[in-house]
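User: For this week's homework, look closely at the record that follows, marking any run of repeated tokens, and judge whether sequence predicts the tokens.
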Amino acid sequence: MVDRCNWIPFDGPPETLGVTAKIRYNHPGTQATVMPLSDGRAKVKLHTPQRAITPGQAAVFYRDDLVVGGGWIV
């Protein structure tokens, strides 16, 4: 789960987004599906399990080189 989401290129994000998610600085990124929720949070389903996902760190969502959103891992 990610809280305090910010959706850069959208007035309102779509129901689901296919993205590359980076879960910390220097993380290479992994494919994920993001499902924005109405309360400013989002559920993130990583397609490949990742180690050391830490609450309080940022999760940033990309499509190619474009940042489409992000929030704080809870």
